[in-house]
Amino acid sequence: MTIKDCVKKFSSELKLVTHIPAKEVEILIMYLLDKNSIWLHLNYNNEFEKVKELEKLVKQRATNYPLEYIIGKASFYGEQFIVEQGVLIPRPETELLVDNCLEILKDLEKPVKILEIGVGSGIISVMLALLVENIKIIAVDINPNALELAQKNAKKHNVLDKIEFRLSNLYENVLEDDICMTISNPPYIANDYKLPQNVEFEPKNALFGGIVGDELLKNIVKNTADRKIPYLLCEMGYDQKASLESFFKTFSIEKYSFYKDYESFDRGFTIKFKKEKDV
In what residue span(s) does the Methyltransferase small domain sit (predicted)? Predict the structure, then answer.
């Protein structure tokens, strides 16, 4: 059976779990052969020797098991990151959080020290370390598996020297007083929300943020204000803007803003707290 025949045959089995079934079969073939898309299309009419292996992976994917966990990687901000089960899969909308962070950092006096709460696979900290020359990052998580994976990604991208990984529940093990910014993509889904089937395979403690969903976000806002850290940037749920905006008014904030994701849903916010002398 040729590669072309395999794509045609197995894509029909993935029509119910993805809007790009043929593309996903190609990705699985490239994974099995350790080849890129250029090679694939130059050899589209060649015989494929790993049909049984491909069939096994397609059946696994057909259960809604995430493609990223099968191939062990995901793309973020144009870079490839290692992905492992037990750690949240990177989402494209989190690139917007990085964009907003970079916009602020470009105007801050260097060097800068920032904190990431809930580092997960490390995509945010690693990208900031790659894109900002004079930066130090403290990256914390409550999940030891996440910290281990984030370290692997930092090593892969040669930025281990810029990031200190630390086991911590929010600010619990963060004592530094020279942090200029906190950035976080924390759990923000309400506990009773019914997850899509594909998301069911991801760690629940990286998804659910409380009964309402924004409890952890509000905790981060309060702790950041208490620590007198000037900037806070967070991702949030699409339906949490009103609740968070009302909560912001209980703090000494110079300015804040919300941003939307690629689907035009409210997806995150930026806060600049007032300096002590301005309060």
Answer: 106-191
